[in-house]
Amino acid sequence: PNDMTALIEADRAHVWHHLSQHKAYETVDPQLIVEGKGMRIWDARGKEYLDATSGGVWTVNVGYGRTSIADAVRDQLVKLNYFAGAKGSEPGARFAQKLIEKMPGLTRVYYSNSGSEANEKAFKMVRQIAARHHGGRKWKILFRERDYHGTTFGALAACGQPQRNADYGPYPDGFVEVPHCLEYRSQYPDAESYGIAAADAIEAVILREGPDTVGALCLEPITAGGGVITPPAGYWQRVQEICTKYNVLLHIDEVVCGLGRTGAWFGYQQYGVTPDFVTMAKGLASGYAAISCTVTTEAIFDLFKSDAADPMNYFRDISTFGGCLAGPAAALENMRIIEEESLLENTQAMGLRLRDNLLALMERHAAIGEVRGCGLFYGAELVADRKTREPLAEAKVQAVVAKCMELGVIIGATNRSLPGLNNTLTLSPALIATEADIDRITDAIGQALTSVLG
Ligand code: PMP
Known about the structure:
Layout: H1 4-14, H2 21-27, E1 33-37, E2 40-43, E3 48-51, H3 54-58, H4 67-79, H5 90-101, E4 108-112, H6 115-133, E5 140-144, H7 153-157, E6 175-178, H8 191-209, E7 214-219, H9 235-245, E8 249-253, E9 277-280, E10 292-296, H10 298-305, H11 326-340, H12 343-364, E11 368-373, E12 378-385, E13 390-391, H13 394-406, E14 409-410, E15 412-413, E16 424-427, H14 435-453
Parallel strand pairs: 3-14, 5-6, 5-7, 7-8, 8-9
Antiparallel strand pairs: 1-2, 2-3, 4-10, 9-10, 11-12, 12-13, 12-16, 15-16
The structure holds 4'-deoxy-4'-aminopyridoxal-5'-phosphate (PMP).
4'-deoxy-4'-aminopyridoxal-5'-phosphate binds next to helix 6.
């Protein structure tokens, strides 16, 4: 229907929304986003918003309305839209080569369609390596409290957030949780000693489980939905040492941080880590096509290639839409834009401004307990009391988000059911943000905090 009211009604009547949108539908005006340009989006009633979330979930890294990406996708679809990923493709080969240039030490790219699927692929490779090369041992996969890896069964088995408890079980066996690394409420005197202790807690889990049973450790470089948790000093270096010591493969989930979000191509590169698997999705094609990648090393590839029992055939997956060529065509142009427009540099510069503005807000608003982040990826944790660090009630956090929306700025919040997970405002504007955009975002937050909390 052309009539927007009818369209909103059709949406209300027939679309099963993600997250808990339906709860909101009972109480607030439903919202349909119909257009986007640069940093801005418009809803069905014509209201304009500055989007500080890159499409709600850290995705539209290069901004809305990129006709060059649309053209690249169109050209590819007209030339060849699809052939199953078991064969090679022009955009697939081009993009893999370009991606690998940015990821020293890694050589192999497996295409699929979502972050969840990319993570599943890595988990399955760990299991195959255990079966063929470790006599069935080293099959366990460690994941971290507060981290998130997707919506499929394996990814949920590796979920460090309350979703794991949403009556979906039983899960596949062999997924084991390690403690989070949020320093804010820790009792350590300094970041360095906490960072080492948080990493050593992973070693303790490996020792408890038995090092010969643990195959991989899967971590977000910065925990995103679980609170924008930046790793404490010394953490990553120690994690790497532990993985090397116990021959545990390191899988970094770059679904949020990948493709420039932190001001580097990948978040792990900020911390000097050498991963065995890197997974990516969201910002990979900025939402212009569905694509994800599982990237790994030649050493891992060789384990499959040289498998005596069944060389290479063992690697049996075929994902239908992993062969859809719109994905790599869009990803290639997305990457070209990031380079040509120096968006990594812009992310670094605008990220510093965002940090400064948030720290200035913190001086005026006692509710901001801590500001954490890197590049254009920040969280402001809201507390009821700075001394006790008691989290601010979820309803108040949501009221701040709603007030910003009323002011025409869309921000996010960690919106989970457990206290301590639902009280962080999340900011992730597109990497094209200007100083004026950043200032407008933080001005709106300041106004919203005053309006909601006084
Ligand atoms: N990993 C992380 C860190 C994520 O934030 C997400 C999505 N929010 C995923 C994986 C899953 O990606 P997708 O939704 O594309 O399956």
